[in-house]
Protein backbone atom coordinates (compact mmCIF):
# COMPACT_ATOMS: atom_id res chain seq x y z
CA UNK A 1 0.00 0.00 0.00
CA UNK A 2 1.38 3.40 -1.00
CA UNK A 3 1.64 6.02 1.73
CA UNK A 4 1.79 9.78 1.60
CA UNK A 5 3.20 12.35 3.98
CA UNK A 6 1.13 15.52 3.87
CA UNK A 7 1.80 18.86 5.55
CA UNK A 8 -1.14 21.18 6.10
CA UNK A 9 -0.71 24.81 7.15
CA UNK A 10 -3.72 26.65 8.55
CA UNK A 11 -3.83 30.41 9.17
CA UNK A 12 -6.55 32.86 10.15
CA UNK A 13 -8.48 34.06 13.15
CA UNK A 14 -8.00 31.81 16.17
CA UNK A 15 -11.16 30.21 17.51
CA UNK A 16 -12.15 27.65 20.08
CA UNK A 17 -12.48 24.11 18.77
CA UNK A 18 -10.54 24.61 15.52
CA UNK A 19 -7.81 22.05 16.28
CA UNK A 20 -10.43 19.56 17.44
CA UNK A 21 -12.44 19.93 14.23
CA UNK A 22 -9.40 19.35 12.01
CA UNK A 23 -7.88 16.44 13.93
CA UNK A 24 -11.30 14.81 14.13
CA UNK A 25 -11.19 14.43 10.33
CA UNK A 26 -7.72 12.90 10.51
CA UNK A 27 -8.83 10.55 13.28
CA UNK A 28 -11.84 9.35 11.30
CA UNK A 29 -9.50 8.28 8.50
CA UNK A 30 -6.89 6.73 10.86
CA UNK A 31 -4.20 9.19 9.79
CA UNK A 32 -1.01 9.20 11.88
CA UNK A 33 0.17 12.62 13.04
CA UNK A 34 3.97 12.85 12.73
CA UNK A 35 4.42 16.46 13.87
CA UNK A 36 2.24 19.34 15.02
CA UNK A 37 2.92 22.92 16.02
CA UNK A 38 0.87 26.02 16.68
CA UNK A 39 1.48 29.73 17.33
CA UNK A 40 -0.94 32.53 18.09
CA UNK A 41 0.01 36.17 17.42
CA UNK A 42 -2.64 38.75 18.33
CA UNK A 43 -5.52 36.28 17.81
CA UNK A 44 -4.09 35.18 14.46
CA UNK A 45 -3.48 31.44 14.31
CA UNK A 46 -0.71 29.57 12.52
CA UNK A 47 -1.12 25.80 12.78
CA UNK A 48 0.92 23.13 11.05
CA UNK A 49 0.18 19.38 11.01
CA UNK A 50 2.29 16.76 9.28
CA UNK A 51 0.46 13.44 8.94
CA UNK A 52 0.84 10.07 7.25
CA UNK A 53 -1.93 8.27 5.42
CA UNK A 54 -2.36 5.81 2.58
CA UNK A 55 -2.77 7.25 -0.90
CA UNK A 56 -6.29 5.80 -1.25
CA UNK A 57 -7.57 7.97 1.60
CA UNK A 58 -5.55 11.13 1.06
CA UNK A 59 -7.91 12.64 -1.51
CA UNK A 60 -10.96 12.28 0.74
CA UNK A 61 -9.05 13.67 3.73
CA UNK A 62 -7.93 16.76 1.84
CA UNK A 63 -11.44 17.34 0.50
CA UNK A 64 -12.96 17.20 3.99
CA UNK A 65 -10.24 19.47 5.39
CA UNK A 66 -10.86 21.96 2.60
CA UNK A 67 -14.60 22.09 3.33
CA UNK A 68 -14.06 22.35 7.08
CA UNK A 69 -11.51 25.17 6.84
CA UNK A 70 -13.81 27.06 4.48
CA UNK A 71 -16.61 26.63 7.04
CA UNK A 72 -14.31 27.91 9.79
CA UNK A 73 -13.19 30.82 7.57
CA UNK A 74 -9.46 30.05 7.80
CA UNK A 75 -6.87 29.55 5.07
CA UNK A 76 -5.29 26.17 4.37
CA UNK A 77 -2.33 25.05 2.25
CA UNK A 78 -1.40 21.45 1.44
CA UNK A 79 1.99 20.07 0.41
CA UNK A 80 3.37 16.58 -0.10
CA UNK A 81 6.56 15.90 1.87
CA UNK A 82 9.01 13.46 0.22
CA UNK A 83 10.00 10.60 2.53
CA UNK A 84 13.71 11.35 2.11
CA UNK A 85 13.07 14.92 3.27
CA UNK A 86 11.21 13.61 6.31
CA UNK A 87 14.01 11.17 7.15
CA UNK A 88 16.56 13.98 6.90
CA UNK A 89 14.44 16.06 9.29
CA UNK A 90 14.26 13.16 11.74
CA UNK A 91 18.03 12.80 11.55
CA UNK A 92 18.47 16.40 12.63
CA UNK A 93 16.48 15.83 15.82
CA UNK A 94 19.50 14.43 17.60
CA UNK A 95 21.62 17.52 16.97
CA UNK A 96 22.57 20.02 19.64
CA UNK A 97 19.91 22.43 20.81
CA UNK A 98 20.47 25.93 22.17
CA UNK A 99 18.28 28.56 23.74
CA UNK A 100 19.03 32.18 22.86
CA UNK A 101 17.19 34.75 24.98
CA UNK A 102 17.12 38.46 24.21
CA UNK A 103 15.60 41.04 26.53
CA UNK A 104 15.45 44.74 27.26
CA UNK A 105 13.02 47.57 27.87
CA UNK A 106 11.94 46.97 24.29
CA UNK A 107 12.98 44.63 21.47
CA UNK A 108 13.61 46.21 18.09
CA UNK A 109 13.55 44.77 14.59
CA UNK A 110 17.28 45.56 14.27
CA UNK A 111 18.12 43.54 17.39
CA UNK A 112 16.16 40.54 16.11
CA UNK A 113 17.62 40.91 12.60
CA UNK A 114 21.24 40.94 13.75
CA UNK A 115 20.72 38.15 16.31
CA UNK A 116 19.15 35.85 13.73
CA UNK A 117 21.88 36.77 11.25
CA UNK A 118 24.50 35.41 13.67
CA UNK A 119 22.38 32.29 14.22
CA UNK A 120 22.18 31.70 10.47
CA UNK A 121 25.87 32.39 9.81
CA UNK A 122 26.77 29.81 12.47
CA UNK A 123 24.77 27.18 10.57
CA UNK A 124 21.94 26.87 13.10
CA UNK A 125 18.24 26.58 12.36
CA UNK A 126 15.50 28.28 14.37
CA UNK A 127 12.87 25.77 15.50
CA UNK A 128 10.68 28.11 17.56
CA UNK A 129 10.37 31.74 18.63
CA UNK A 130 8.49 32.50 21.85
CA UNK A 131 7.64 35.77 23.56
CA UNK A 132 8.15 35.37 27.32
CA UNK A 133 6.96 38.78 28.47
CA UNK A 134 3.43 40.21 28.43
CA UNK A 135 2.23 42.36 25.58
CA UNK A 136 3.98 45.72 25.23
CA UNK A 137 1.85 48.80 26.03
CA UNK A 138 1.21 51.21 23.17
CA UNK A 139 1.80 54.19 25.47
CA UNK A 140 5.14 53.47 27.15
CA UNK A 141 4.92 56.62 29.27
CA UNK A 142 2.17 54.96 31.28
CA UNK A 143 4.49 52.01 32.10
CA UNK A 144 8.08 53.30 32.12
CA UNK A 145 9.54 50.06 33.57
CA UNK A 146 8.43 47.83 30.72
CA UNK A 147 10.24 44.61 29.84
CA UNK A 148 10.41 42.72 26.56
CA UNK A 149 11.86 39.24 26.09
CA UNK A 150 11.98 36.82 23.17
CA UNK A 151 13.36 33.27 23.30
CA UNK A 152 14.75 31.44 20.27
CA UNK A 153 15.02 27.65 20.26
CA UNK A 154 17.71 26.71 17.73
CA UNK A 155 19.17 23.45 16.53
CA UNK A 156 22.47 22.36 15.04
CA UNK A 157 26.20 22.54 15.65
CA UNK A 158 27.68 26.06 15.54
CA UNK A 159 30.64 26.64 13.25
CA UNK A 160 32.45 28.10 16.28
CA UNK A 161 30.53 28.17 19.58
CA UNK A 162 32.99 30.47 21.37
CA UNK A 163 33.01 32.89 18.45
CA UNK A 164 29.21 32.84 18.41
CA UNK A 165 29.08 33.67 22.11
CA UNK A 166 31.45 36.59 21.61
CA UNK A 167 29.49 37.85 18.60
CA UNK A 168 26.22 37.82 20.53
CA UNK A 169 27.71 39.61 23.54
CA UNK A 170 29.30 42.24 21.30
CA UNK A 171 25.99 42.74 19.52
CA UNK A 172 24.18 43.22 22.82
CA UNK A 173 26.62 45.98 23.77
CA UNK A 174 26.30 47.71 20.41
CA UNK A 175 22.49 47.64 20.26
CA UNK A 176 21.83 48.03 24.00
CA UNK A 177 19.98 44.85 24.89
CA UNK A 178 20.71 41.74 26.95
CA UNK A 179 21.32 38.26 25.61
CA UNK A 180 21.88 34.72 26.83
CA UNK A 181 23.14 31.66 24.94
CA UNK A 182 22.57 28.36 26.74
CA UNK A 183 22.79 24.76 25.64
CA UNK A 184 19.33 23.25 26.00
CA UNK A 185 20.16 20.35 28.30
CA UNK A 186 18.25 18.63 31.08
CA UNK A 187 20.22 20.74 33.57
CA UNK A 188 19.02 24.00 32.06
CA UNK A 189 15.45 22.89 32.67
CA UNK A 190 16.13 21.84 36.26
CA UNK A 191 18.11 24.66 37.91
CA UNK A 192 17.74 24.42 41.67
CA UNK A 193 20.26 26.68 43.46
CA UNK A 194 20.85 30.38 42.82
CA UNK A 195 23.58 32.39 44.55
CA UNK A 196 23.68 36.20 44.58
CA UNK A 197 26.25 38.79 45.32
CA UNK A 198 24.69 41.44 47.57
CA UNK A 199 26.21 44.90 47.10
CA UNK A 200 25.33 46.49 43.73
CA UNK A 201 23.38 43.34 42.88
CA UNK A 202 20.53 42.79 45.34
CA UNK A 203 20.95 46.36 46.61
CA UNK A 204 21.87 49.49 44.63
CA UNK A 205 24.81 50.46 46.81
CA UNK A 206 28.02 49.22 48.41
CA UNK A 207 27.28 48.96 52.14
CA UNK A 208 30.89 49.61 53.06
CA UNK A 209 30.56 52.96 51.29
CA UNK A 210 27.46 53.76 53.35
CA UNK A 211 29.34 52.91 56.54
CA UNK A 212 32.28 55.00 55.40
CA UNK A 213 30.02 58.02 54.87
CA UNK A 214 28.83 57.71 58.46
CA UNK A 215 32.48 57.47 59.59
CA UNK A 216 33.48 60.51 57.55
CA UNK A 217 35.84 58.57 55.26
CA UNK A 218 33.52 58.09 52.29
CA UNK A 219 35.82 59.44 49.59
CA UNK A 220 38.79 57.33 50.64
CA UNK A 221 36.75 54.11 50.88
CA UNK A 222 34.92 54.65 47.58
CA UNK A 223 38.17 55.12 45.72
CA UNK A 224 39.44 51.78 47.06
CA UNK A 225 36.06 50.06 46.35
CA UNK A 226 35.93 51.19 42.74
CA UNK A 227 39.50 50.11 42.12
CA UNK A 228 38.80 46.68 43.60
CA UNK A 229 35.59 46.15 41.63
CA UNK A 230 37.43 47.00 38.42
CA UNK A 231 39.93 44.29 39.32
CA UNK A 232 42.83 46.72 39.63
CA UNK A 233 43.80 45.71 43.18
CA UNK A 234 43.47 42.50 45.15
CA UNK A 235 40.11 42.17 46.93
CA UNK A 236 41.64 40.99 50.22
CA UNK A 237 44.02 43.93 50.35
CA UNK A 238 41.29 46.41 49.50
CA UNK A 239 38.95 44.86 52.07
CA UNK A 240 41.46 45.18 54.91
CA UNK A 241 42.24 48.78 53.99
CA UNK A 242 38.58 49.78 53.85
CA UNK A 243 37.58 48.04 57.08
CA UNK A 244 40.49 49.70 58.90
CA UNK A 245 39.09 53.10 57.93
CA UNK A 246 35.82 52.28 59.76
CA UNK A 247 37.51 52.13 63.16
CA UNK A 248 35.55 53.97 65.86
CA UNK A 249 32.17 53.91 64.07
CA UNK A 250 29.25 53.21 66.44
CA UNK A 251 27.41 49.98 65.50
CA UNK A 252 24.03 51.67 65.95
CA UNK A 253 24.36 53.14 62.46
CA UNK A 254 24.18 49.64 60.93
CA UNK A 255 20.48 49.28 61.80
CA UNK A 256 19.71 52.67 60.26
CA UNK A 257 21.55 51.78 57.05
CA UNK A 258 19.91 48.34 56.80
CA UNK A 259 16.41 49.76 57.10
CA UNK A 260 17.09 52.22 54.29
CA UNK A 261 18.92 49.98 51.82
CA UNK A 262 17.99 50.81 48.19
CA UNK A 263 16.65 47.50 46.91
CA UNK A 264 17.37 46.68 43.27
CA UNK A 265 14.47 46.78 40.82
CA UNK A 266 12.82 43.38 40.52
CA UNK A 267 14.10 41.74 43.72
CA UNK A 268 10.63 41.30 45.23
CA UNK A 269 9.24 39.67 42.09
CA UNK A 270 12.34 37.53 41.54
CA UNK A 271 12.45 36.15 45.08
CA UNK A 272 8.71 35.50 45.17
CA UNK A 273 8.86 33.40 41.99
CA UNK A 274 12.06 31.56 42.98
CA UNK A 275 10.71 30.54 46.38
CA UNK A 276 7.34 29.45 44.95
CA UNK A 277 9.23 27.40 42.35
CA UNK A 278 11.30 25.54 44.95
CA UNK A 279 14.71 27.16 44.37
CA UNK A 280 17.30 27.25 47.11
CA UNK A 281 18.70 30.78 47.41
CA UNK A 282 21.93 32.13 48.88
CA UNK A 283 23.74 35.41 49.42
CA UNK A 284 27.50 35.07 48.90
CA UNK A 285 28.85 38.51 49.63
CA UNK A 286 32.09 40.36 50.13
CA UNK A 287 29.95 42.71 52.20
CA UNK A 288 28.83 42.17 55.79
CA UNK A 289 26.70 39.55 57.53
CA UNK A 290 24.54 42.12 59.35
CA UNK A 291 23.09 43.37 56.09
CA UNK A 292 22.98 39.92 54.50
CA UNK A 293 20.92 38.64 57.43
CA UNK A 294 18.61 41.64 57.12
CA UNK A 295 17.90 40.65 53.50
CA UNK A 296 17.60 37.00 54.50
CA UNK A 297 14.76 37.81 56.88
CA UNK A 298 13.10 40.19 54.41
CA UNK A 299 13.18 37.83 51.40
CA UNK A 300 13.53 34.39 52.99
CA UNK A 301 16.98 33.48 51.65
CA UNK A 302 18.16 30.02 52.66
CA UNK A 303 21.85 30.88 53.19
CA UNK A 304 24.00 33.93 53.89
CA UNK A 305 27.79 33.96 53.79
CA UNK A 306 29.52 37.31 54.20
CA UNK A 307 32.16 39.06 56.31
CA UNK A 308 31.86 39.73 60.04
CA UNK A 309 32.96 43.07 61.43
CA UNK A 310 34.68 43.00 64.83
CA UNK A 311 32.91 45.06 67.49
CA UNK A 312 34.72 46.30 70.58
CA UNK A 313 33.34 46.29 74.16
CA UNK A 314 32.48 49.97 73.71
CA UNK A 315 30.02 49.16 70.90
CA UNK A 316 32.24 50.58 68.20
CA UNK A 317 33.92 48.97 65.19
CA UNK A 318 37.56 48.07 65.83
CA UNK A 319 38.66 48.38 62.20
CA UNK A 320 39.18 44.61 62.04
CA UNK A 321 37.11 41.61 60.90
CA UNK A 322 36.40 38.14 62.31
CA UNK A 323 37.06 34.90 60.42
CA UNK A 324 38.02 34.34 56.80
CA UNK A 325 37.36 36.94 54.14
CA UNK A 326 34.63 36.06 51.66
CA UNK A 327 36.46 36.94 48.45
CA UNK A 328 36.13 35.62 44.91
CA UNK A 329 37.87 32.33 45.67
CA UNK A 330 35.71 31.78 48.76
CA UNK A 331 32.50 32.52 46.83
CA UNK A 332 33.40 29.82 44.32
CA UNK A 333 34.10 27.35 47.15
CA UNK A 334 30.79 28.19 48.84
CA UNK A 335 28.88 27.69 45.60
CA UNK A 336 30.31 24.19 45.26
CA UNK A 337 29.73 23.45 48.96
CA UNK A 338 26.07 24.49 48.84
CA UNK A 339 25.53 22.39 45.73
CA UNK A 340 26.93 19.37 47.60
CA UNK A 341 24.84 20.10 50.71
CA UNK A 342 21.66 20.35 48.62
CA UNK A 343 22.68 17.32 46.50
CA UNK A 344 22.56 19.44 43.35
CA UNK A 345 24.73 19.00 40.28
CA UNK A 346 26.93 22.06 39.74
CA UNK A 347 25.32 22.39 36.28
CA UNK A 348 22.01 23.10 38.06
CA UNK A 349 23.40 26.17 39.83
CA UNK A 350 23.11 29.86 38.96
CA UNK A 351 25.31 32.73 40.12
CA UNK A 352 24.55 36.45 39.77
CA UNK A 353 27.01 39.25 40.50
CA UNK A 354 28.51 42.49 39.29
CA UNK A 355 32.14 42.74 40.41
CA UNK A 356 35.52 41.23 39.63
CA UNK A 357 35.36 39.14 42.80
CA UNK A 358 32.19 37.48 41.41
CA UNK A 359 33.89 36.12 38.29
CA UNK A 360 35.08 32.85 39.90
CA UNK A 361 31.56 31.86 40.96
CA UNK A 362 30.04 33.11 37.68
CA UNK A 363 32.38 30.86 35.71
CA UNK A 364 31.85 27.91 38.08
CA UNK A 365 28.04 27.95 38.05
CA UNK A 366 25.97 26.19 35.43
CA UNK A 367 24.61 29.63 34.53
CA UNK A 368 26.66 32.71 35.45
CA UNK A 369 24.98 36.09 34.94
CA UNK A 370 26.77 39.44 35.15
CA UNK A 371 24.20 41.91 36.47
CA UNK A 372 24.72 45.62 35.66
CA UNK A 373 28.35 44.64 35.88
CA UNK A 374 31.63 46.49 35.61
CA UNK A 375 33.11 46.44 32.06
CA UNK A 376 35.78 43.87 32.95
CA UNK A 377 33.16 41.51 34.39
CA UNK A 378 30.71 41.92 31.52
CA UNK A 379 33.51 41.30 29.01
CA UNK A 380 34.35 37.94 30.62
CA UNK A 381 30.81 36.75 31.43
CA UNK A 382 28.85 34.46 29.12
CA UNK A 383 25.50 36.07 30.01
CA UNK A 384 24.67 39.55 31.23
CA UNK A 385 21.73 41.74 32.20
CA UNK A 386 22.26 45.49 31.97
CA UNK A 387 19.03 46.99 30.64
CA UNK A 388 16.33 45.86 33.11
CA UNK A 389 15.91 44.79 36.74
CA UNK A 390 17.22 41.65 38.38
CA UNK A 391 13.95 39.83 37.72
CA UNK A 392 15.29 39.54 34.18
CA UNK A 393 17.04 36.43 35.53
CA UNK A 394 13.65 34.69 35.37
CA UNK A 395 13.56 34.96 31.58
CA UNK A 396 17.01 33.39 31.27
CA UNK A 397 15.50 30.48 33.22
CA UNK A 398 12.63 30.22 30.73
CA UNK A 399 9.84 31.69 32.88
CA UNK A 400 6.98 33.40 31.04
CA UNK A 401 5.01 36.32 32.44
CA UNK A 402 1.82 34.32 31.89
CA UNK A 403 3.17 31.60 34.22
CA UNK A 404 4.36 33.93 36.98
Walkthrough of the structure:
The protein is α/β, with parallel strands linked by helices and 404 residues long. It has helices spanning 18-28, 55-72, 83-92, 109-121, 161-175, 207-215, 218-229, 235-244, 252-259, 267-276, 289-299, 328-341, 359-364, 375-380, 393-396; strands spanning 3-13, 32-41, 44-54, 75-80, 97-104, 125-131, 148-155, 178-183, 193-196, 280-288, 303-311, 317-322, 349-353, 367-371, 383-385. It is elongated. The relative contact order is 0.11. The model has no long low-confidence stretch (mean pLDDT 90).
Write the layout of secondary structure elements.
Layout: E1 3-13, H1 18-28, E2 32-41, E3 44-54, H2 55-72, E4 75-80, H3 83-92, E5 97-104, H4 109-121, E6 125-131, E7 148-155, H5 161-175, E8 178-183, E9 193-196, H6 207-215, H7 218-229, H8 235-244, H9 252-259, H10 267-276, E10 280-288, H11 289-299, E11 303-311, E12 317-322, H12 328-341, E13 349-353, H13 359-364, E14 367-371, H14 375-380, E15 383-385, H15 393-396
Parallel strand pairs: 9-10, 9-13, 10-11, 13-14, 14-15
Antiparallel strand pairs: 1-3, 1-4, 2-3, 5-7, 5-8, 6-7, 11-12
Helix pairs in contact: 1-2, 4-5, 6-7, 7-8
Amino acid sequence: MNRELILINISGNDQTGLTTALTEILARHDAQILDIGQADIHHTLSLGILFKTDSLRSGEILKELLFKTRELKVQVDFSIVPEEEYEAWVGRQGKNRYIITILGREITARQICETTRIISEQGLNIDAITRLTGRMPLNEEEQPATKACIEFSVRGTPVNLLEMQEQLMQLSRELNFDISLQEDTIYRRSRRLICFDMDSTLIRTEVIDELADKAGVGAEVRAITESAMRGEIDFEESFKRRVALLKGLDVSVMKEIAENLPITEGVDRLMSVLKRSGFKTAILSGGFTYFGNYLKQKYNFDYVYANELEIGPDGKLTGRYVGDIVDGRRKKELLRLLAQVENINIAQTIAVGDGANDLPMLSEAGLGIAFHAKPKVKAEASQSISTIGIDGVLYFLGFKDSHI
